[in-house]
């Protein structure tokens, strides 16, 4: 088993019309043993930017704290909020700096840029970026997630339709993966703010 699969995770980022959504499951496990059903994998960086971290739980929490520290430094120095593109480059650089002893995390970045357009990006554990216009996925059931997203996604969805699509894609995918699931959470980012909703999933 890969160390990236040790705790289990499922994360999706998906774009809509002037909005973007990011969703994750809630499970924290040790291989096939479930430890907790309320483990946070998505973190808010500012009013229009969130990052999901799939991988080893200790590295997820370490990276969250490091990113907050680096973002606070940036905002103090630059006196403005970090854009999703700048944040992606910062995270990519941080991961590449540790390439010989990497953080075992695969990030998913979702946010709105300065023009209010959706921004989606993901990368591997040493920071190799892959941007997308429609959706990005990470975690132990990425094959399932790709299949469901390709089936359900359509361009320019409004907020409610985007929420419904990403929620159904997540729940259907984790039902077929023993390492993720136990409910989930969806965050929809719009110019008005962030709307978060809990999902109930199968508990078996």
Automatic annotation (TrEMBL):
SUPFAM superfamilies: N-terminal nucleophile aminohydrolases (Ntn hydrolases) (SSF56235). GO terms for biological process: proteasome-mediated ubiquitin-dependent protein catabolic process. It is found in: Cytoplasm; Nucleus. GO terms for cellular component: cytoplasm; nucleus; proteasome core complex, beta-subunit complex. InterPro entries: Ntn_hydrolases_N (IPR029055), Proteasome_beta_3 (IPR033811), Proteasome_bsu_CS (IPR016050), Proteasome_sua/b (IPR001353), Proteasome_suB-type (IPR023333). The keyword DNA damage does not apply. The keyword Cytoplasm applies. Its main location: cytoplasm. Keywords: Cytoplasm, Nucleus, Proteasome. Belongs to the peptidase T1B family. Component of the proteasome complex. Component of the proteasome, a multicatalytic proteinase complex which is characterized by its ability to cleave peptides with Arg, Phe, Tyr, Leu, and Glu adjacent to the leaving group at neutral or slightly basic pH. The proteasome has an ATP-dependent proteolytic activity. This is Proteasome subunit beta. It comes from Skeletonema marinoi.
